[in-house]
Design a protein that fits this description.
The protein has about 120 residues and is α+β, with helices and mostly antiparallel strands. It contains four helices and six strands; from the N terminus they run ααββββββαα. This is YkgJ family cysteine cluster protein. Pfam families: CxxCxxCC (PF03692).
């Protein structure tokens, strides 16, 4: 298996800001179980149908990206349901390489600031 060429712990959560984070049936069941809720209650509380998908994560406001997954801690910049996260999140970015992380490393080196966050507003505004 190829070694990952990124470090999520040094990222502000760019992938969590995507407008569509699909939640498949098994994912919804896992998240419901994580919170001790019925699937029906979890559906109402955590998900919505949007962008042609049966179920996507609801989002919250975020100072850097406009909106971000509701389960993302915007202070610590970490997923709060990591063990129960959807399959979409589990397989991201795919080939062991994250383009945003590469860009972020480049920008931080250029800015000479290890905390610099290059932002993209996905809020649609």
């Amino acid at each position: 298996m190829a070694r990952a060429k990124y470090d999520c712990l040094k990222c502000p959560g760019y992938c969590c800001s995507y407008p569509v984070i699909e939640v498949k049936d098994k994912d919804a069941e896992r998240i419901a179980k994580h919170f001790g809720l019925s699937l029906k209650d979890a559906e109402k509380k955590f998900f919505k149908s949007a962008h042609g998908y049966k179920r996507v994560m609801r989002r919250q406001k975020d100072e850097h990206f406009g909106k971000i997954c509701q389960f993302f801690d915007t202070t610590e910049r970490r997923c709060t349901i990591y063990a129960a996260r959807p399959s979409t999140c589990r397989i991201f970015p795919g080939e062991g390489h994250c383009g945003y992380y590469d860009f972020l490393k480049f920008e931080r080196a250029g800015q000479e600031d290890e905390t610099y966050i290059s932002t993209t507003n996905h809020s649609g505004n």
